[in-house]
Specification:
It is built from eight helices and no strands. With 148 residues, it is mainly alpha-helical. Among the domains are: 33 residues, no CATH class; 48 residues, no CATH class. It comes from Cedecea neteri.
């Protein structure tokens, strides 16, 4: 019974972090030229991806950080490097030699793009979810992150 209560509490706590109003506007903007069937399939796939990302970050984040000895400042540096890498990859996209741009439908692209999943989860949600396990949020930099 305690496990079900913990899972339910985790879902309730993560719901406001998903920022549903902004996410809906973002999704509709990205899927504007899709038909209803493609949009529904993409929404389902994106929802599953976001659910998995948020649950892993919430429930396993602290265990992983303790296991590998990762500190919050180290996590911030790694996060900055990842964002920079994704940004440069978006600036200079590489075309695959064996695949033309028309060969994949937009619905497949949207739900499989890491950038879309990151946007749907929203910046900092994974960090807030992981930091929610701590009693002293200030010690782990959550207050400073909220001001950004």
């Amino acid at each position: 019974m305690d496990l079900l209560r913990a899972i339910g509490l985790g879902l309730v706590v993560l719901l406001p972090l998903a920022n549903p109003l902004t996410t809906v506007a973002l999704f509709l903007g990205l899927s504007g030229d899709m038909n209803s069937r493609q949009r529904n399939r993409t929404a389902l796939m994106a929802s599953v991806n976001v659910f998995v990302i948020m649950m892993v970050a919430y429930y396993a984040g602290q265990v992983v950080m303790n296991t590998f000895g990762i500190s919050i400042p180290g996590l911030r540096i790694a996060g900055g490097l990842i964002v920079a890498f994704i940004g440069f990859r978006m600036l200079f996209p590489q075309q695959k030699a064996h695949e033309s741009p028309e060969s994949r439908s937009k619905s497949e692209e949207l739900s499989e793009e890491p950038e879309a999943n990151i946007a749907f989860v929203a910046a900092g949600d994974a960090k807030y979810g992981r930091a929610g396990h701590h009693r002293d949020d200030h010690q782990f930099g959550v207050h400073r992150a909220r001001r950004l």
